[in-house]
Amino acid sequence: MITWYCYIVRCADNSYYTGVAKNVSRRIRQHNGSLAGGAKYTRSRRPVVLVRAFGHKNRSDALRHEHRIKALDHEHKARYDESNYRKDQRYLGPPVIRSTLA
Question: What is the pTM of this model?
Fold first, then answer.
């Protein structure tokens, strides 16, 4: 029985945030500011969009999975993001991060 989830969200600046939760949809609403709570990291990077959620039997397994994902670099996290693939499933690469400094 799945009771905990490890999830990845893509922020408005194309960075990725990984966390764990029992209720992913509620947690996404928190990250986007429609409910109280949410991570400090995502507050200045709204809106966030759910990329992937992985079900786990317990919190411990979800936290271990979160730790492994957080250790990945941006390009590897981007491989979980379906928006980085063409319709024929060819990988397009990670999203381009545009600097706001000009």
Answer: 0.84
